[in-house]
Design a protein that fits this description.
Length: about 160
């Protein structure tokens, strides 16, 4: 009897572990995809800004300055075009997956630092996206609370 209970406990613990691993894996996959997009967006914005500045100030620059500008543009475009190696999250060990999950905070800090400085030509989109997400969350919460209140009133009337 005790052995059966212990085996049942092990099966339940294993199921919970597998479910948590899936959730962690999904979070890591989503973050990695978003991280790559944010870095590409940063490089694209800076390449575009340098192209615009080169176009506007081309006549007043020397050949060496234009070449330097083009090299900077090339560097940003190469970062966008650099292929990313595919990651097999299913084949990762649990420790590797947890390390990647724990590194999310540091990568977010890197992104914040990357977008911290914005030239006057670039609009800082990241705070706008965060504001929209907060507004969406607040609106959903407000609608849910109103639906609960309506449900309570309907129950009271019956």
């Amino acid at each position: 009897m005790i052995l059966q209970l212990f085996n049942a406990y092990k099966r339940t613990a294993y199921r919970n572990f597998i479910q948590n691993r899936r959730e962690i894996q999904e979070a890591v996959e989503d973050f990695d995809e978003n991280y790559e997009y944010e870095v590409d967006l940063y490089n694209f914005d800076h390449a575009l800004m340098k192209i615009e500045s080169l176009k506007n100030f081309c006549s007043g620059t020397t050949k060496n300055q234009r070449i330097l500008h083009c090299k900077r543009i090339h560097k940003h475009l190469q970062q966008i075009l650099k292929p990313t190696s595919p990651v097999d999250y299913d084949a990762m060990s649990n420790d590797e997956l947890l390390e990647r999950f724990d590194s999310i905070k540091t990568k977010e800090a890197e992104l914040d630092k990357l977008f911290e400085y914005q030239d006057i030509y670039l609009y800082p989109w990241r705070p706008v996206f965060r504001m929209c997400k907060r507004a969406k969350t607040a609106l959903i919460e407000k609608c849910e609370s109103m639906m609960k209140k309506i449900g309570k009133k309907n129950k009271e009337e019956k």
